[in-house]
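Protocol step 4 of 6: record predicted structures for both targets in the notebook before any analysis. Target 1:
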Amino acid sequence: MKHSTNQLTRSGRGPARRIGRSLALVLPVVLVLSGTLAVTRVNWSGNPSDSVLTASSEDLAARAAAAPAPQDVLRDQLLLELQDKDPGTALTHLQQAVNGQPSLAKHCTSIARALGRAAVRVYGPSRAQSYSRPVCDTSFATGVAAAHS
C-alpha cells in the first residue's frame, strides 16, 4: 500500500513541477532580453532630436495644433448651413449637436451669436430676427441685435 500512496503523491506534483522548472529557466531569459531591448531604446546621447519619444510627441503636438477644435468645426458647418438653407435649420442642428455632445454646451452661446450675426449679413435684420428661438437662451437674438446696431 505504501508504494501506491507514494506514486500518487509524485504524480500529483509532477506536471506542476515541470511547469515550474520551465518557467524558472525561461523567465530570466525573457527578463534579460526585455531589459536589453528597453536599454537600447533610451536616448543616451543627450540630444533630444535623436529621441524616438521626442519625435513622436512633437508629431502629436503638431497634429493637435493643426486640428481645429470640435466647436470650431461645428460653427463652420452651421454657418455654411445657414447660407445654404436657413438660420432655423442651423439653430435646430446646433441644439441637436449640444444635446448629443454635452461638452459643446459651453460654446453654444458663442456659436448662436455667430449664427445671428451671419443671419443679419445674409437675410437682413428683420428677416434674421424672425428665425430667432430659444436655442442657447437668447444668444441668436443677441447676435442679431449686435450685428444690427
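Target 2:
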Amino acid sequence: MTTHTPTTQTQTPRTVPTDNDKTTAYAPEPTPRLPWAQLAPDVYKAMVRLDAASRQGVDPVLLELVKIRASQLNHCAFCLDMHTKDALAAGESVERIVQLSAWEESPHFYTEKELAAIELTEAVTVLTDGFVPDAVYERAAEHFEESALAQLIAAITVINAWNRFGVACRLVPGHYRAGQHR
C-alpha cells in the first residue's frame, strides 16, 4: 500500500554538472510547513485505511496514472514525485508519464479506458463548474462496471485529499523511493 508519509528532509543543496565541468547549485530545498501526519496521527491513519480501501480492484498502473494526473492538476510536487516513481517501478513508460499532462493532444498513448479515467480524474479534481459533466461520467461508465467506477471515483477523491495535505503542508519531493510505503 502506498501512503504519503513525509520523509525527513535535508537542506543540502543539490548540484548539477554543466557542460564546462563547473557545478551549478539548484535552488535550496524548501522547508516543510507542518508535519501533519505526526500532529494528526488519527487522521493520517484514517487516510491510509481510506487509501487502501479505495485502491481495491483498481488496476495499479491505471491508478498511478490517475494519481499523477490529479497531482499535476493540484500542483502537488510531493505526490508527483511519489507516484511517478511508483508508476515507473510498476512498468509504466517514461513516455506515457511525460505525455500525461498533455493527454488531450496525445490520446494515442492511452487506451480508451485510460482516457475515460483520466478525463474523469480531471472532472472530479477541477470542480470549478461545480459538477462532473454527464458526458464525462457516461464515457467512464462505458468502460467501468458500476462497482469499478465507484472504486475509481473513490481513488480519485483520495488522491485529491492527499494532494491537499501535501500542498498545504508543503511536503518536499525528491526523497521518496519507489515502493517505500508499501
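Step 5 preliminary note on target 2. The two ends are 4 Å apart (CA to CA). The longest helix spans residues 146-168.
Proceed to step 6 after PI sign-off.
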